[in-house]
Amino acid sequence: MHSLTTTDTSNAPGTLRRTLERGEFVVAPGVYEMFTAKIADRMGFKALYMTGYGVSASHLGLPDAGLVGYTDMVGRAGTIAQGITRPLIADADTGFGGLINVRHTVRGYEAAGVQAIQIEDQESPKKCGHTPNRRVVPLAEAVKRIEVAVDARRSKDFLVIARTDARTALGLDEAIARGRAFAKAGADIVFIESPESVDEFRRVGEELAGGGAWLIANMVPTGRSPELSAQQLQQMGFDLAIWPGALMSVVCQAAEDALAYLARNGTTEGSPVPSYDMKRLHELVGFPEVWEFEKRYAS
């Protein structure tokens, strides 16, 4: 077992751990590629969330059903983490294999610049948490994943999020019991996926808040859970909330509307769909820096 280093974060207010220690509630929108990541990075959020659903769909055109692998995910995580200024929370499914894969995944995500990794207790291949027919591994195996993840990290500023999908198949009692076990195993943040009512969210907060780990909620409008506001969740005892589909859903609708207009009219002129002009696109992707470099160094 290697020793952990605790990074001095007194001069790094942007670290996720430091934000949570200050008691600030974290709203993290889902990002999955660099247009969305760069836009979200400018909006003042305390963290961003790399969604596995979004990466699987945007990178490979496949559903979030265990089809995207470690190499795809860690590569995308590194690209996003290095291209933004906000802390990045990243989905790592079940750790992409057995326990030694969990260790490898944690070390890879940490080296890529991610600040918090999400590990699930589903069987492989896993599925999106708001789809049916999810199955979880036995509790002892799920706890071992978290123990390995906690031991594998090199800095305590790298947070381990332990997610359980037990609610759908085994009920809320089992999900809460797993949350307690994950906190005892050293998880920094506990994630009870897809409670099915406001009362269930309230009960999760009552039974797990203050239990040795921070508490995260997943807001998926039109999914299995009701959407609650950040204020409501904070009052219930939650510390963070992710909105994985906040960008995917609107981007897909805007793309469909814009392309339908082009198909009907043979032009984009007059389209009612809001859009960036080229000046804003150039600025977003960093062309002003290129032009400044050329002024200084190009012959």
Care to give the gist of this entry?
By secondary structure, the chain is of the alpha/beta class. It contains 13 helices and 8 strands. It has helices at 16-21, 34-41, 52-60, 70-83, 99-112, 139-152, 166-170, 172-184, 198-208, 230-236, 248-265, 278-285, 287-297, and strands at residues 26-31, 48-50, 88-91, 116-120, 159-164, 189-192, 214-218, 240-243.
Task: Report on the architecture of this protein.
The chain is of the alpha/beta class. The chain has one domain (16-251): TIM Barrel (Alpha-Beta Barrel), CATH 3.20.20. It is 46% helix and 12% strand. The protein is built from 13 helices and 8 strands. It has helices at 16-21, 34-41, 52-60, 70-83, 99-112, 139-152, 166-170, 172-184, 198-208, 230-236, 248-265, 278-285, 287-297, and strands at 26-31, 48-50, 88-91, 116-120, 159-164, 189-192, 214-218, 240-243. An 8-stranded parallel barrel has the order 1-2-3-4-5-6-7-8, surrounded by 8 helices. α10 (230-236) links the parallel β7 (214-218) and β8.
List the helices and strands and how they pair.
Elements: H1 16-21, E1 26-31, H2 34-41, E2 48-50, H3 52-60, H4 70-83, E3 88-91, H5 99-112, E4 116-120, H6 139-152, E5 159-164, H7 166-170, H8 172-184, E6 189-192, H9 198-208, E7 214-218, H10 230-236, E8 240-243, H11 248-265, H12 278-285, H13 287-297
Helix pairs in contact: 4-5, 5-6, 8-9
